[in-house]
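Issue: copy button drops trailing tokens. Both records pasted manually instead:
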Amino acid sequence: MVRLLVTAGLAILSMVMLLVLAQGLNAGADDRGRLAVKAERSAPAESEGLAVLRRDKTGQFHVTAAVNGVEGRFLVDTGADVVALSPEDADAMGVAFDAAAMGPILQTATGPANGVVASIDRLEVAGQKLHDVPVAVVEGLDKPLLGQSALRKLGRVSLRGDRLIIGG
């Protein structure tokens, strides 16, 4: 029953995964496809508790966030239910997960993707500190995704032209 609920809850994430995998985007990754922890810093412009992100050359929004004190570059994905990390990124960022419990939790362009739901102890993003944030650890994920499990805790998220405004 729990697996069924997790699968249903990650349905939106699977659609996003299809898009990300189909495009083969590797921004923020090193030559092995792993998260480049010393990724280029594109700190949001912050004013009165708001973070303003500018659309990048790919038309997407990225933000630098720290998971348990380890920085990484995340694709802001308002359509994803949860934050998502690859097992390698989760290990590098100190996110505990049970690799033995991994199983098919979503459908991608290349077939089912194995993963497991875990929790991020501490996530710092857009000038805010979040605790106990649900995360999907998914095999084959190109880049970390910042989904609704974090975004809804940050306040309002709005799109104005080429700017994504978080907070308020």
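Record 2 (pasted manually too):
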Amino acid sequence: MLERVFCLRTIHTFLVLVLWTQLLTGQPNQQDSLLAAGALRDRGEYSQAIAVLEALTQSGADDANSGTAWTLLGSVYQDVGRYGDAHRAFQTAISVFKNQPGTERQEAIALDNLGSLYLAIGQTEMSKKLRLRVLKVVQAAGDHAGIAMVYNNLAATALQGNDIKQGRKYVGLALQETRLAPRTDDDDLAAIFTHAGWLSIHDHDYKQALAYYDDARRLWVKGHGMNHHLTGWGNVLCGRAHALMGDTQQGLAEVKTGLSIIENTVGTHVSLYFGARLIYAEVLSAAGSPKEGKAMRAATLLSLQSFLRGKASESVISADAFR
């Protein structure tokens, strides 16, 4: 059940459109800095993105642009496991937007990201409540692409809570909304495909799972090229599906390739890396090396626990969320 944990950290189309529209109303230096920070995050250059965003948020401003900076900073903090800092950043963004007229959609961005954070720490009910609030905003705006992504996020919440029926419903609704949207961002569509793939694996339809994962990987390659952590994750997912189909050598090769891409682009101190390592351990066992796979799994879980403790999260994070 690893993929439902690690596929949701792209910036959604709905969020991007509102974010960049907001930036265009700001001062040129603010706009340039926020765009640069977003680009740094996309490339996995988290330390540099944090430095840019922390400088912006320390300016003392209390306007919509400041709220946008806090939201993006919270997302980067979450990417690197600084969950307590991410929580404070999202809460600050929400407070800023509440004091600014006409920023309902920007506030929805912050709420959606806070919902992602609660999902990451296993608080699925709080995540669901926040995302249902966001759903009302995008439905009122008639934004089918945004509605699709909120349904996908609700699917993630349901699947992490092992509610397969609800997860299946939300994935179906997400796919339906993409057909109504003039255009759905490739990253967002790929994220929906990964949940559809997970459901196919749950149903033991590994061929269909591979088709969904391969579509997601193709979209990530199209948008980011071969040397990007999302493309790496796509390789890992395709490798797992191949292994489950019985083609363990192909699966092992793809997982190795994906893990290498993730390590080379975002490093070994992000949650995505640990997820990829756990899948690698699973595929190793399937490929005839159960002892090595078991040892890798145990070592990865220990490293993951140490990583989470080292980030001094204000919440208790269990490694069970990554299994």
